[in-house]
Specification:
Number of strands: 16
Strand content: 25-35%
Largest sheet: 6 strands, mixed
Shape: rod-shaped
Number of helices: 2
Radius of gyration: 43 Å
Number of domains: 3
CATH topology of the largest domain: Immunoglobulin-like
Oligomer: single chain
CATH superfamily of the largest domain: Immunoglobulins
Order of helices and strands: EEEEEEEEEEEEEEEEHH
CATH architecture of the largest domain: Sandwich
Structural class: alpha+beta
Distance between the termini: 137 Å
Length: 225
């Protein structure tokens, strides 16, 4: 904060704390000032908060004061989340790491979103970490959230993640290998069928021996007749 704040209780000085205790705040966020003497009952004291030497919150029995930051003098403008990817190409069967961050500040949780060319944007459930691993292709984005009421950063720029497809050279090798195995299979099939038919019909010598035996049987029958 750019201003100096002080809380006091008559002649005594109390302890002033700011919650949440982040290193920096942004326009639109809420902060709570707590002025406490740390002794006695809360109703025993009246609290006053001063800003830059001037009364900021008049004396009151309430020691907590919530303020929404609206002045850019005391804060930075609304930030935009930044999304980065280790790589934008997912290897087949693998995954990539996505990282969402907010400039020079702490206390953030993160919301993640994904869409495709055919589907609308949808929030990735159960993911609030700064880093996530994804194995699906798509268009990803994120934003930071913190505080109560919840404060949202602007959503990040899109990052498109793609899945590696089989390369043309690999496809050519697979195609040639398939053709070779196909030709070998067909040759083996023809060889098998040829042997089967050959065995069924017998060799030419066997056929001639069978014909001679038949002729001899015919001659013998004629002689006996």
């Amino acid at each position: 904060m750019g201003a100096t704040l002080l809380c006091e209780l008559g002649l005594f000085y109390a302890v002033l704390t700011i919650e949440p205790s982040w290193s920096s705040f942004f326009t639109g966020e809420f902060v709570t000032f707590k002025c406490d003497m740390n002794e006695g009952k809360d109703t025993d004291w009246y609290y006053q908060i001063n800003k830059d030497g001037q009364e900021f919150v008049p004396y009151d029995t309430n020691k907590d004061y919530k303020l929404q930051i609206t002045s850019t003098h005391d804060s930075a403008d609304k930030p935009r989340a930044t999304l980065t990817a280790g790589t934008t190409i997912i290897p087949v069967g693998g995954s990539v790491t996505l990282t969402c961050s907010v400039q020079s500040s702490d206390g953030w949780k993160y919301e993640w979103f994904r869409r495709t060319q055919r589907t609308s944007e949808d929030q990735i459930r159960d993911q609030q970490n700064r880093d996530i691993r994804v194995s699906q292709g798509g268009i990803y984005s994120c934003r930071g959230t913190r505080g109560n009421p919840v404060y949202y950063t602007d959503i990040s720029d899109d990052v498109t993640i793609e899945i590696t497809s089989v390369s043309s050279s690999s496809f050519l090798v697979l195609m040639i290998s398939g053709l070779i195995f196909g030709v070998i299979f067909i040759l083996l099939l023809f060889l098998f069928l040829y042997k089967k038919v050959y065995r069924k019909k017998g060799s030419p010598d066997d056929q001639r021996v069978s014909q001679d035996e038949n002729q001899q049987q015919v001659y013998s029958s004629l002689l006996h007749g």
